[in-house]
């Protein structure tokens, strides 16, 4: 329950930070950002409809796509994040903190990227291209921030024709900084090898297989000091799954010894989704 409350609070605060960065650093300087928020900003420019409502409406079909590939819990967190973000975009005044457009593009991009990275790391997303990036990152083993930046280029190119290429160049800076920030805060692409020494092997095996639906290698072992029988479980996961895996281990066996190491490459069958 504590973990759930922590996730809800963190996702909510980060969604507000996203809205703050957007309304105080990006929108006032016509820095369109990218993805759904960028599209929403361009629609707002012509129709004067609040960006919060536009963001939520565009995300609806992406929620459906996310349920299929990323799971119901992920989408529930994402819907919550998008709802808080939409509300934040609606209530936070569009007022620049600084008139320096370069400084706004760097700080706005950094805050936006940190918010998105923390939300993804907590188990949700801000919708839009985040959902598509996470799906592709699991399939293609490419960094989330890099994928988001690539998909945002189309939106940025369109904004260049609307707002001028001078502003678009600053927008590219903001997107690059945001992408780097996302990858620093959250990286899902590296594979991790887990070696778990536990006295509750059967319960952990059942839980991990249910969680990841992947194979686990099991060795019988004995504690050198206690001489108690133990099991050593070896499995490979992605960073995307690390948080839930650690939580499951702590719930079943708080005394388990867990060695987590980065894995350069996996050969053979590895279930990516």
Written overview of the protein:
With 273 residues, the protein is of the alpha+beta class. It contains ten helices and four strands, in the order H-H-H-H-H-H-H-H-E-H-E-E-H-E. It has a four-stranded antiparallel β-sheet with strand order 2-3-1-4, covered by helices on one side. Strand 2 (217-222) and strand 3 form a beta hairpin. The longest helix is centred in the first third of the chain and has 25 residues, at 2-26. 37% of the residues are buried.
Question: Characteristics of this structure?
Answer:
273 residues; alpha+beta; Alpha-Beta Plaits; 2 domains; 10 helices; elongated
Structural class, please?
alpha+beta
User: What profile does the largest beta sheet have?
Assistant: 4 strands, antiparallel
Portion in strands: 5-15%
Q: List low-confidence stretches.
A: none
Number of helices: 10
Order the strands across the largest sheet as they lie in space: 2-3-1-4
Straight-line N-to-C gap? 26 Å
Tertiary shape: elongated
- Share of helix, binned: 55-70%
What is the number of beta strands?
Answer: 4
Could you say how many structural domains there are in total?
2
Which helices and strands occur, and which strands form pairs?
Elements: H1 2-26, H2 35-47, H3 51-70, H4 72-91, H5 101-122, H6 129-140, H7 144-163, H8 165-185, E1 191-198, H9 201-212, E2 217-222, E3 229-238, H10 242-252, E4 257-263
Antiparallel strand pairs: 1-3, 1-4, 2-3
Helix pairs in contact: 1-4, 1-5, 2-3, 2-7, 3-4, 3-6, 5-8, 6-7, 7-8, 9-10
């Amino acid at each position: 329950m504590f973990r759930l409350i922590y996730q809800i609070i963190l996702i909510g605060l980060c969604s507000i930070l996203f809205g703050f960065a957007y309304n105080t650093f990006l929108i006032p300087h016509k820095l369109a950002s990218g993805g759904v928020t960028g599209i929403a900003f361009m629609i707002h420019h012509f129709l004067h409809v609040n960006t919060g409502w536009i963001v939520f409406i565009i995300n609806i079909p992406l929620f459906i796509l996310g349920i299929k590939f990323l799971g119901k819990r992920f989408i529930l967190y994402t819907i919550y994040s998008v709802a808080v973000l939409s509300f934040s975009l609606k209530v936070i005044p569009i007022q620049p903190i600084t008139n320096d457009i370069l400084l706004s593009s760097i700080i706005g991009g950094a805050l936006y990227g940190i918010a998105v990275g923390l939300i993804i790391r907590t188990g949700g997303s801000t919708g839009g291209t985040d959902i598509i990036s996470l799906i592709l990152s699991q399939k293609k083993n490419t960094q989330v921030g890099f994928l988001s930046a690539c998909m945002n280029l189309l939106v940025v190119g369109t904004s260049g024709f609307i707002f001028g290429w001078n502003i678009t160049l600053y927008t590219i800076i903001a997107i690059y900084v945001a992408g780097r920030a996302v990858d620093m805060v959250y990286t899902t692409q590296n594979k991790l090898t887990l070696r778990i020494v536990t006295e509750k092997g059967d319960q952990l095996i059942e839980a991990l297989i249910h969680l990841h639906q992947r194979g686990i290698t099991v060795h019988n072992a004995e504690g050198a000091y206690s001489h108690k029988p133990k099991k050593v479980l070896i499995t490979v996961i992605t960073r995307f799954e690390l948080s839930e895996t650690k939580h499951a281990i702590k719930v079943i066996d708080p005394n388990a010894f867990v060695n987590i190491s980065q894995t350069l490459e996996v050969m053979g069958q590895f279930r990516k989704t």
